[in-house]
Amino acid sequence: MGTKSLVCVAVVVLFLSAARADSEGQLQLGLSTDKPEVFERVEIAVGGMPAAANPFDPEAIALDLEVVPPSGQRLQVPGYFDREFDRKLEGNREVLTPSGDGSWRLRWLPLEAGRHTLVATVTLAGKFAARGKTAVVVAAGKRRGLARVEPEGKRYFRLDDGTPLFLNGLCACWHGRRGTYDYDDWLAAYQQAGINYIRIWMWHQAFGIEWDKGDKLHYRLDNAWRLDRVLAEAERRGVFVMLCLDYHGIFEVKPDYWGSNNFWPRHPYNAVNGGPCQTQNDFFTNAEAKKLYTQRLRYLVARWSAFPNLLAWEFFNEIDNEYRYLKHEDVVAWHREMGRCLRSLDPARHLISSSFTGGSERPDLFALPEMDFAQYHSYNEKHPAGMTAQKTARFFEKYSKPFFVSEYGTDWRGWKPDTDPHFRALHQAIWSGVFTGAVGTGMTWWWESIHTAKLYQHWSALSGFLAGTGIGRADLGPARFENVAGAVTPFGVAARDEALIWLLDRACDWPDGALEANPAPVDGVTLALAGIDDGTWSIEWWDTLAGKRLAVAEATASGDLLRLAPPAFQVDIAARLKKRESPPNGRTR
Questions:
Q1: Sign of the torsion angle spanned by Cα atoms 490, 495, 497, 499
Q2: pLDDT tens-digit series, residues 495-514
């Protein structure tokens, strides 16, 4: 307990003492299923809860669940106050109507098979009030589990069952006037395209629960309900979500380029609104502010940690945008403290990260052991593939952690198709992540415009290309090339017996050739892939827009070199390479 912050310990210690008390009241636990499976979210309705003036204040009332699994490794799961809503579209606007007066719930994610004992306890002002107990047998099932850092190479993610997880996705951070109906449409399209990752912001226009004057320890249950629905729909569609908990605009006092995003005057922690912070930097140093934040973390964990498709908690979006008001050293110290707190609260131990702007690389944040992976935001940068290769190599060398370009756009000021009419920058940002050793694609911004323009073939083609490959395996790393002849830039990842490579016509390396609708074919390219096993290799050349094989060939590697000669292509071409097995007599089949 010495490694935890005192503020965080105060939030969780209520249950630790209450669990030892003798039962005086009885809670009723209604499980959503009596035959749960490992990694299946279990919803538990809790009856018999006493009344409290503020159900969001764990110092006033706290509900906690202790889970005793067969292994004996006890888990503590906080409970939360909830309210149901009904939704409908009025014109083109989502309208939510409250249903009922609210209730208490627990969400539990079983992590192992076998018989589990569940003990729920409620405290009032830190004193025991009631308890409920039940038992349930969890089946093994076939679910693959949660995202973790691959422990050997530490470059990729994998699921609990060992399945590699490469992120093929984009940002989809908030909805429009149609609310959750937007995500119904988007997620259906994402599933069809093979997209398995999105990023969501908890900000005022969508899913934020504590951002305005009256929200301090009085969370917005309508936005929480929206996030419930979207996470559940994403889970059903096979889409992982990085959940960004706050964004830089909560500290700003001046309108930005769009005339908004200046929410510090309205923030509930601001002293003018009855909060504890005289200045924005107090958010990161003031004990009361940190206590309020850990109480919010408790609610977030209670409500959303049981979603197995929650890829990661992301504390902030581009926090350095507001460094005119903040001290970097205090921001880093806060991330260390809150990272430890979140880790101690989260029974599923989801990944944790945070983000800066593209112009700011500050190693002391991503170097924290509490940060599980590193990110970079790229806007207005030329040559997206080269940028991705450079950033991936540098960040991995610095931190030995998974890395990806978690925001990408040709212009931060808006969707600019006139500068990329054939969407080559978009395509190159998406595809380059695979071939540079990143843990995911470049995560493009402007998701609403992408949906309207129906540009999902760039992701679906990549999904088809990656199917059946070893992307994400522990020994995969950036490939080496020699003897490159032709006006191409090669990118790739390789192990001794497998490689994925991608050749980009330099004349079409965005913004070069951006306006050329029908660029000249590239022919006569030769190159050698270095550092692989000798023997016979199968080679599949792929059309990156259609997601189809163009040609199949074999070649023999010798002296750790495999010589390649792609067919003629326009703009770019990719290949899947695999060493053929040899029969016992040593001859290649």
A1: negative
A2: 999 999 999 999 999 999 99
Burial class for 328, CB neighbours closer than 10 Å (0-12, 13-18, 19+): middle
- Write out the two tokens for 192: 């069809």
Burial of 1 (0-12, 13-18, 19+ CB in 10 A): exposed
Under 8 Å between Cβ of 203 and 245: no
Per-residue pLDDT of 18-73, as tens digits, reads 333 333 579 999 999 999 999 999 999 999 999 999 999 999 999 999 999 999 99
CB burial of 13-40 (b: ≥16 within 10 Å; e: otherwise) equals: ebbeebbeeeeeeebebebeeeebebbb
pLDDT score at 21? 34
- Burial of 366 per CB tally in 10 Å (0-12, 13-18, 19+): buried
Both ends of the chain: CA-CA distance in Å?
A: 59
Q: What string of H, E and C letters represents the secondary structure of 305-333?
A: CCCCCEEEEEEEECHHHHCCCCCHHHHHH
What are the tokens at 347?
């029974």
Residue 35's SS3 state is: coil
Q: Does residue 147 carry a pLDDT above 50?
A: yes
Give the mean pLDDT of 268-280: 98
Element (H, E) at 501: strand 498-505
pLDDT given for residue 361 in this prediction: 73
pLDDT at 359: 72
Go through the domains of the chain in sequence order and give each one's CATH number.
Answer: 6-138 (2.60.40.10), 156-466 (3.20.20.80), 477-579 (2.60.40.1180)
pLDDT score, position 358 = 82
Q: Rounded to whole angstroms, what are the CA distances from 300 to 271, 342, 555?
A: 24, 10, 54
State residue 15's pLDDT score: 40
Q: Kindly report the backbone phi and psi dihedral angles of residue 548, in degrees, each rounded to the nearest multiple of 5, phi listed first.
A: -135, 155
- For residue 354, give the nearest of 406, 303, 408, 396 by alpha carbon: 406
Neighbours of 324 (CB within 10 A): 11
Compute how many other C-beta atoms are within 10 angstroms of the C-beta atom of residue 88. 10
CA distances in angstroms from 179 to 242, 259, 495, listed in the order given: 19, 22, 44
- Could you read off the pLDDT of 81-129 as tens digits, one per residue? 999 999 999 999 999 999 999 999 999 999 999 999 999 999 999 999 9
Scan for tokens 């006033």, then name that residue.
60
In this predicted structure, the answer to whether residue 148 has a pLDDT above a threshold of 50 is yes
DSSP state of 569: B
Is residue 101 classed as helix, strand or coil in its secondary structure? strand
pLDDT in tens, 355-370: 999 877 777 899 999 9
Weakest-pLDDT range from 11-15, 196-200, 487-491: 11-15
What is the reported pLDDT for 23?
A: 39
One-letter amino acid at 321 equals: N
**At residue 222, what is the residue type?**
D
Neighbours of 524 (CB within 10 A): 10
Contact call for residues 270 and 277 (beta carbons, < 8 A): yes
